[in-house]
Each structure stands twice: as C-alpha cells, then as structure tokens.
Amino acid sequence: MSTPQPRANVAEIPPYVAGKPPTVRPGMTSYKLSSNENPYPPLPGVIEAVQAGVGAMNRYPDMGSAALYAALAETFDVPAGHLSVATGSVGLIYQLVQAFCDPGDEVVFAWRSFEAYPIAVTAAAATAVKVPVLADGRHDLDAMAAAITDRTKVVLVCTPNNPTGPAVSQSELDAFLARVPSHVLVVVDEAYVEFVRMTDPVDGIATYRSHQNVVLTRTFSKAYGLAGFRVGYAVAPAPIAAALRAVSLPFGVSTVAQAAAIASLERRAELFERVDSLVAERTRVVEALRGVGWDVPEAQGNFVWFELGDRTLDFAAAADEAGIVVRPFAGEGCRVSIGETEANDRLVAVAAAFTR
Ligand SMILES: *Cc1c(COP(=O)(O)O)cnc(C)c1O
C-alpha cells in the first residue's frame, strides 16, 4: 500500500542539536553554557509589559506587529517598509531561502558556522555549498566569492561566526560585496552584533543602505535576552523585506513577544550595560585561556571556541564534571557561552587542568 511521502530532501535535513541542560549535581550549582543565552534575567519593566499582554491571550496578536515595526524603525532610523519581523532570526533564514531559492539553487556559507543554515537550505530543497573557515576561525571570503556559480541565489555571512567567534571587518565585507553579482542576495547574520568590539567593525545599516542585495538579520535572543520568546528582525531594501513578509507565518510573533521586544528596545541603555559586562567577562576569559596556553580564536560574540578534534567529547565531559554544560561538535571542538562569573571561572579552571 502506498503512503504519503515527503519530498526526498526532507530525509536529508540534518537534525538541530540543541544545547543540553546542565546535569543536576547535589550540592553544586550547575550552569548552562551551551546555547549562547544571556545569563541575565529579564529587566524590570519587560516582565510587566509582557504581563499586560498575557491577559489578551484569547485574541490573535497584531498580525502586522505595527508597534514593533514602529519601534524598530525609530531605533534604527530605517523605514518600516525595510523591516521584517519573524519568529527569531532562524525564522528569517528559512524565509529568505524559501523566498529566493528554487529547488537545486545554491546557497553559499562558511562551515563550520550556524547549524541552522544547512537545515533551512535542505528544507527548501536548495543545495548547501559549504566553504571551510580559515584555521583561525574566520570566513574565507575569497573562497566564498569563488564558490558563487550561476546557480547561487544566496550567500550567508555569519558575523561574528557561530561557533568559531571572529567577526568580519567592514573593509573585508566591502571587498567581498564588490565581487558578488548584484542578483545574488547577501545575508549578513548579525545575531551577535551588539557584542562586537573590534577595529573597523561592520556597519550593517550603512551597508544595507548602499547595496540593493544586502539583508541584515538580527535577533532579540542574545543581547536582549529574549531567546524564549522568539523574535528576530531583518533590515533590507523594500523589495527584499516585502518578499520576507510575504512568506512569513501569519501571526508568528506572539503578543507577548511583541510586547517584550518593544519594552526591551525602550531599555536598550540598561541592556547594553549588561552586554558591556558580558564583553568584559569575555575579555577576561579569553586572556585567562591564552594565559594557560589555549590558542582560542578571536571571540566577538558571547561565546568562546575550543578546537579539540578527537578530544572534544572529553573536554565536554570534564566541563560537565565541573557543573558547566558546553556545546560539543564531535570531532571538531566545543563552543562555550560566556555566562555568570562563577561559570566562567569554572570554565577557565577546566581548561587549565585539561591535558590535550
Ligand atoms: C542564535 C543565532 C541566531 C538567532 O536565533 P533566533 O532564532 O533569533 O533565536 C541566528 N544566527 C546565529 C548565527 C545565531 O547564533
């Protein structure tokens, strides 16, 4: 008897491996450093804004997310028609591939990079073209430009790169964009943009303003600490933003998520003090790791990358023993989020004691 069959690409979709929760150890606080979450609890005022929305849960959310669009437009000084909000920036990546790729079209991205990329690309029956990152964890933008063919529709640039950590500079991005044909969409995934502290950082807004084929994707999940609420936004020229909105899930961004995002935009100054503290912790951790001999790549996000090869799972187990859960990529390395000071201290201790 024949049964309904999904498209062949569905069986090829790689699984998303979510960061594990910490192992509960009696008498010891455990920390989750496996999902690049923000360790701070919601700011006062954000919870109250959400509570006001809770009472309206019998109603659909504002489908047009009008207040959120207005707040984003004002914050970033862009027209509301150049924005598209979605259920996290993962939602935006899916929508971009869906809107711009026919089956078999190619999407070029660095690898290892964000694990949702091959999932979104394969789900759309497009073809993933993975360009290895350089030894120091940076995008190989020359090789990525060279990988563009007449089947290429989209290039994803993840900066800072999850999980390796370095960010692309503006001059590197400009040189790359000059080599990309104007019909190829360049997605600049800026999930960690608020954590970048480097010379010549990318100015995403200026870059999208000067290119017809550039879209920025950003999220409230990391710096803003709203990972549980699923809100992201894209900034793009009007036709691209319109295509994104056309394929978006109706009512995807819930009432409470809209309220939390708006309240968080209003409290950016306070939130960014927290980001500064996390960046200071990142600097402290990276210096301590280098001080005990670890050659960790430049860390521009809220996480650090340990290249460990076949010692990856041993390192993850050692961290687990110390009450911190990290994100291992078997055979490659571990990504560890910057978290509470105590958690970061434990990470440094684990790394110092670990024999490679
Ligand atoms: C966390 C992350 C995202 C954002 O995820 P959300 O869906 O917005 O929670 C996007 N891109 C990268 C590279 C990330 O690490």
From TrEMBL:
<comment type="subunit">
    <text>Homodimer.</text>
</comment>
<dbReference type="GO" id="GO:0004400">
    <property type="term" value="F:histidinol-phosphate transaminase activity"/>
</dbReference>
<dbReference type="InterPro" id="IPR050106">
    <property type="entry name" value="HistidinolP_aminotransfase"/>
</dbReference>
<keyword id="KW-0663">Pyridoxal phosphate</keyword>
<dbReference type="GO" id="GO:0000105">
    <property type="term" value="P:L-histidine biosynthetic process"/>
</dbReference>
<dbReference type="Pfam" id="PF00155">
    <property type="entry name" value="Aminotran_1_2"/>
</dbReference>
<keyword id="KW-0808">Transferase</keyword>
<dbReference type="GO" id="GO:0030170">
    <property type="term" value="F:pyridoxal phosphate binding"/>
</dbReference>
<dbReference type="InterPro" id="IPR015424">
    <property type="entry name" value="PyrdxlP-dep_Trfase"/>
</dbReference>
<protein>
    <recommendedName>
        <fullName>Aromatic amino acid aminotransferase</fullName>
        <ecNumber>2.6.1.57</ecNumber>
    </recommendedName>
</protein>
<dbReference type="InterPro" id="IPR015421">
    <property type="entry name" value="PyrdxlP-dep_Trfase_major"/>
</dbReference>
<dbReference type="InterPro" id="IPR001917">
    <property type="entry name" value="Aminotrans_II_pyridoxalP_BS"/>
</dbReference>
<dbReference type="InterPro" id="IPR004839">
    <property type="entry name" value="Aminotransferase_I/II_large"/>
</dbReference>
<comment type="function">
    <text>Aminotransferase that catalyzes the conversion of aromatic amino acids and 2-oxoglutarate into corresponding aromatic oxo acids and L-glutamate.</text>
</comment>
<feature type="modified residue" description="N6-(pyridoxal phosphate)lysine">
    <location>
        <position position="222"/>
    </location>
</feature>
<dbReference type="InterPro" id="IPR015422">
    <property type="entry name" value="PyrdxlP-dep_Trfase_small"/>
</dbReference>
<dbReference type="GO" id="GO:0008793">
    <property type="term" value="F:aromatic-amino-acid transaminase activity"/>
</dbReference>
<dbReference type="InterPro" id="IPR024892">
    <property type="entry name" value="ArAT"/>
</dbReference>
<keyword id="KW-0032">Aminotransferase</keyword>
<feature type="domain" description="Aminotransferase class I/classII large">
    <location>
        <begin position="32"/>
        <end position="348"/>
    </location>
</feature>
<dbReference type="InterPro" id="IPR005861">
    <property type="entry name" value="HisP_aminotrans"/>
</dbReference>
<comment type="similarity">
    <text>Belongs to the class-II pyridoxal-phosphate-dependent aminotransferase family.</text>
</comment>
